[in-house]
Amino acid sequence: MIKRLLYTLLIYIPVLASAQINTDRVMAIGRNALYFEDYVLSIQYFNQVINAKPYLAEPYFYRGLAKINLDDFQGAESDCSEAIERNPFVTSAYQVRGLARIQQNNYAGAIADYIKALEYDPENIGVWHNMALCRIRQEDYAGAKNDLDRLIVISPRYTKAYLMRGEVDLKQKDTLAAEKDFGKAIEIDRYDADTWASRAILRLQQERYKEAEGDFDQAIRLSVRNAGVYINRALARYHQKNLRGAMSDYDIALDIDPNNFIGHYNRGLLRAQVGDDNRAIEDFNFVIEMEPDNMMAIFNRGLLLDQTGDYKGAIRDYSTVIDEYPNFLLGYQYRAQARRKLGDLKGADADEFKVLKAQLDKQNGVTQNNQTADNTDNDKTRKKSDKNMNNYRKIVVADNEEGEEKYKSSYRGRVQDKNVNIVPQPMFVLTYYEKHDDVKRQVNYYKYIETINAEKVLPGRLLITNEETSLTEEQVKKHFASIDEQSAAIVAHPDDVNKRFARSLDFYLVQDLSSAIEDLNQAILIADDFFPAYFNRALIRYKQLEYQKMEKEYDTKANIGESTGVKAMDYEMVKHDLDKVIELAPDFVYAYYNRGNVLAVLKDYRAAIVDYDRAIQLDPKLADAYFNRGLTHIFLGNNKQGIQDLSKAGELGLFSAYNIIKRFTERNE
Q: Would you list the DSSP string of 281-325?
């Protein structure tokens, strides 16, 4: 989640040469854990350094960085303050403290931090970006526009600056300037879904619904799993009386985000309009479950229950609304009709008398703020916060303006870019944990690994995954304790390869990669045919190289062996281990896949494709192999083959493949 920020920040926080070797090592492991998003674990390492050398700024800063990713914003602010007290000249500490203050709604404090950061780094795009957003939050639109103008001078092709300035234009009611800024953003980067969505929102506001729909179409092509874009396109379609198209968009949005309130409410209204009463009731049931006091949803459900013959249910809903709004005369009218259908003539007469009395009072000039019918205005929509019962049939739109909603968490350094990064799928590893996935693509299986699990020679169940997850505090404690247990067991049984491998897993999970490799070296000396040791050693060496490249210099244009300090021969060691795995287990599909990744890093794309071919031959449902082979074909200029592979990857569940397909398809048109 924070790698992009960390890449940059690591450059500016040098490791202090005066630190003793133990604290240097603990600090390095902590930074490694932070880089691989093991935040709880990294904090424990930084705590050790702080306890040993409380005068260092570095561990406080990195602990703050970990805390902000755990949503401990107060703790992050405190740690960054400690770091600044010890070293007031580091831009990154002000940046992170600014982020922590933003999350606590302290925009003035965040702006003060950003102004200080700009003293040391006046062309820092992230700082200008965040400061402008803070000013927007403070409704200082002139100040925000001034910041964005400066940012555009510094980085003329930074599309987010144009999008934000367009939002400021809208707040200042300057739609012509807004359209110009959104158009410029599209001109610079037409593959960014936000650029199209922003202009589409403007066109919705201008009632240019057909053009808005066209822009939303483009946004959807570039971001197929964004529920908000479908919700908004449904609104554009609704205004063009395309009810079926709008309902289709709500269906897709709710498939992506099943708990979307606006999606359920509006789909319920549209289903009611086309006579799909039972399914409309289902939507309003969902809304009422989410918001039991939503009177408009209850009244709409009452109308539908009435139409489907459930008069008791309808009367219950009408009564709930009337109790809340005793002057809502339409409620009495419908309840009277329902009561009469059930034979409750006395109750029906009482409701009708209430309506008649209100009409007489109105004729006599007595005002009781009665609500008798729908509003007569032509607006077909209402804000979600609107409580006027007259508007019960109107389509709901969000209270926040689209720009605020879109940018509310877009502070740079807090989240990754929304665009899909065109990078390969990650390497596989043998470990105990993987991320929970509601749409799990497949279970990764290999008979020998299942045999190890069946024999219970390891403390946990071994998984094959490339979706690793960070540890909880309890899991961290568990693996530190397990290291001690396995160490005692190794002393008692020095030739037991399983115990060495088990401890290597513990070291790996607590991010002590050097110790993990040492244990794997020993495991291989004990049993040179134990392929899991080679497999994990290759993965850990690969991770070390990845981290070393980032630590030396964050430069996306650097080639291996130049400024990164990592040489091609370093990757050859990784490849050699994978060669050995394939020799020992020639049907282990994940070794071919991982070796393909290594060959791609070495720019040996044709050899990488051969390995991906073999992986797909062994497992035709391995989506990651199709994805990476597709990218490799594209790197070689074989776009047709690449897109075909990416399509298969998307079919098998890697939805980000579709975004890349659309980009390359459009470029070739």
A: HHHHHHHHHH-TT-HHHHHHHHHHHHHTT-HHHHHHHHHHHHHH-
Give me 120's structure tokens: 């040391």
Closest by alpha carbon to 235, among 247, 246, 224?
Answer: 246
Cα 243 → chain centroid: 30
User: Residue 599 pLDDT > 80, yes or no?
Assistant: yes
Cβ neighbours, 10 Å, residue 74: 12
SS (H, E, C) 90-146: CHHHHHHHHHHHHHCCCHHHHHHHHHHHHHHCCCCHHHHHHHHHHHHHCCCHHHHHH
- What DSSP string describes 411-447? -BTTB--SSPP--PPPPPEEES-----TT-------H
Check: CB of residue 542 under 8 Å from CB of residue 598.
Answer: yes
pLDDT at 506 over 50: yes
Q: What share of the chain is helix, strand, coil (3-state, %, to 5)?
A: 70, 0, 30
pLDDT digits (tens, 9 = 90+) for 357-404: 888 877 776 655 555 444 445 578 888 888 888 889 998 887 654 434
Asked whether the CA dihedral 366, 367, 371, 374 is positive or negative, the reply is positive
Q: What CA–CA distance (Å, rounded) separates 437 from 50? A: 36
**Tokens, residue 7:** 């890449």
Calpha distance 193→198 (Å, rounded): 9
Measured at the CA of 249, the angle between CA 248 and CA 252, to 5 degrees, comes to: 90
Q: CA dist 563 to 151, 279, 542, Å? A: 29, 61, 18
Residue 463 to residues 13, 103, 425, 452: CA-CA distances in angstroms?
Answer: 36, 37, 18, 11
Cα end-to-end span (Å), the chain: 34
Inter-axis angle of helices 159-171 and 141-154, nearest 10 = 160
pLDDT at 417 over 50: no
Over residues 17-56, the pLDDT tens digits come to 334 448 889 999 999 888 888 888 999 899 999 999 999 9
| Identity of the residue numbered 542 | Y
Query: Which tokens sit at 249?
Result: 């968009």
For residues 459 and 482, is the Cβ–Cβ distance under 8 A? Answer: yes
Supply 529's token pair: 């045919």
CA distance 231 to 529: 56
Residue type (1 letter), 25 = R
Angle, vertex CA 214, rays to CA 209 and CA 219, nearest 5: 120
Compute the half-sphere exposure of residue 141: CA atoms within 13 Å on the CB side of its CA: 10
CB neighbour list of residue 337: distance below 8 Å, 6 or more residues apart: 306, 348
